[in-house]
Write a structure and sequence with these properties.
The chain is an alpha/beta fold and 423 residues long. The protein has 23 helices and nine strands. Strands 1-3-2-4-5 form a five-stranded mixed beta sheet. The protein has a four-stranded parallel beta sheet with strand order 7-6-8-9, with helices on both faces. Helix 22 links the parallel strand 8 and strand 9. Helix 11 crosses helix 23, helix 17 packs across helix 19 and helix 21 packs across helix 22. The chain is globular, with a radius of gyration of 21 Å. The structure holds iron/sulfur cluster (2 copies). The site of one iron/sulfur cluster has 13 residues, from helix 3.
Length: 423
């Protein structure tokens, strides 16, 4: 796409934005894989349409506010990157563009307040737990609330766990094969603390010592998604420091796809800034737990106690953003008594996408129902995935259609297969 974007006007990430625009050749191959285009049917809700809109804004031909409804509806799922034959790096455009729009556009007061609440609670486990408890108390009154707030109540968990304080070092079982750092994840610690416990057990079982630095913070992915670049940088700086202080690490492990791809973005976040080298080193060491274990080679699990059919759901931030599809499947295939099933439309987002199911509940609901239908059609006994956001979204959508298929993180299933080992 030809353009007249003056990249230098947009800071260190301007060149990446201009490059993404100019590599787009308008072919439209990405359109059928874009969940919002499939759902809403508008060119401006497609990757090609959004690239055009962002170009117009960056060139100064269009007001930020005119493009914003279409930009807001983008899930950031990056299915368009996977399907683009020209290699358009859409992520390098949408992420800094959101920061630009946040700085130069106008946001309504209700939305501003809602986003402020999200940012002041979700990244802080104690505050988030408090918010969920308050939510559970006022849930009976949800009918009186405006649409966006009402939809948030559907995502509230039935049980809210107590704080689970993780040790700073979790030892390896047997001979030491590797030493890694673990990002504990903020919302995940509250919504499903058992995922971290399962991850630690599995890593330990495989001879991996895990360091969980106490001074780590939220990965910043939520702030990036909302275009709050300075906030994202502040959080990223804390993590750079926390994991550097942990000593030599073979990898920085994430067990939530959204956090993993957020940390992989630190390199771009600090482009041309004093932290650039440290951030690049950090990002290149980030790995999803499934990929790390697959590369390490896992200890053979004995198997599940009963034969079970497991459908694997690809989280967009694992499959599209990090290109990790094979590793979790190969891990699951090593488990005796487990039959791996593939749902239709693996590439289509479930509608979770960070805070998307809170901010865009109608579209998220359509995508969630579509995902739940495809997963239910596999006739699986359970679902495996690698992202807490997908897990919460799919569980809620399954409940809506009265389909009782439980959903677990891949590490929980592997942990189960190892527990049987010990019996
Ligand atoms: S497939 Fe790639 S080049 Fe073609 S319209 Fe989409 S983003 Fe542009
Ligand atoms: S990131 Fe996802 S929703 Fe956004 S344009 Fe690309 S495919 Fe569509």
């Amino acid at each position: 796409m030809q353009h007249k974007i003056q990249a230098e006007k947009f800071g260190s990430r301007g060149a990446g934005m201009a490059h993404a625009v100019e590599t787009c050749v308008h072919c439209g191959f990405c359109l059928p894989t874009c969940p919002t285009y499939q759902t809403l049917g508008e060119e401006m809700d497609s990757p090609r349409g959004r690239i055009f809109l962002m170009r117009e804004v960056l060139e100064g031909n269009l007001a930020v506010e005119a493009a914003q409804p279409y930009i807001d509806k983008c899930l950031g799922c990056l299915a368009c990157e996977t399907s683009c034959p020209s290699g358009v790096e859409y992520g390098n455009l949408i992420s800094p563009y959101r920061a630009h729009a946040r700085e130069h556009g106008k946001t309504g007061p209700l939305r501003k307040a809602f986003r402020a609440i999200l940012q002041e609670t979700l990244p802080y486990p104690a505050r988030f737990r408090f918010l969920l408890r308050m939510g559970a108390i006022v849930r009976p009154l949800k009918g009186l609330l405006p649409g966006v707030l009402k939809a948030s109540f559907d995502l509230l968990p039935k049980n809210i766990s107590s704080a689970d304080s993780l040790p700073e070092i979790f030892p390896a079982k047997g001979p030491l094969r590797a030493r890694v750092g673990l990002l504990a994840g903020c919302a995940q610690q509250v919504l499903a603390p058992e995922i971290n416990r399962a991850t630690l057990a599995v890593l330990s079982e495989n001879g991996v010592e895990v360091v969980i630095p106490k001074s780590q913070s939220c990965c910043g992915a939520l702030a990036m998604h909302l275009g709050e670049e300075e906030r994202a940088k502040a959080l990223a700086r804390k993590n750079l420091e926390a994991f550097e202080q942990a000593g030599p690490l073979d990898a920085i492990i994430s067990n939530a796809a959204g956090c993993g791809s957020g940390m992989a973005e630190y390199r771009d976040l600090f482009l041309g800034q004093p932290e650039e080298e440290r951030a690049a080193k950090f990002s290149s060491n980030v790995q999803d737990v499934s990929l790390f274990l697959y590369n390490l080679g896992i200890k053979q699990p004995k198997g599940l106690p009963e034969p079970a059919k497991i459908a694997y759901h690809d989280a967009c931030h694992l499959a599209h953003a990090q290109g990790v599809r094979e590793a979790p499947r190969e891990i699951l295939k090593t488990i005796p008594n487990l039959t791996l099933l593939e749902p239709l439309e693996w590439e289509v987002c479930c509608g979770s996408a960070g805070t998307y199911n809170i901010e865009q509940p109608e579209t998220a609901d359509i995508l969630g129902q579509r995902k739940a239908k495809n997963l239910a059609a596999t006739d699986a006994d359970a679902i495996a995935t690698g992202n807490i956001g997908c897990l919460v979204q799919i569980r809620g959508q399954m409940e809506k259609r009265d389909t009782n298929i439980p959903i677990f993180h891949t590490m929980q299933i592997l942990e189960k297969a190892y527990q049987t080992d010990e019996k």
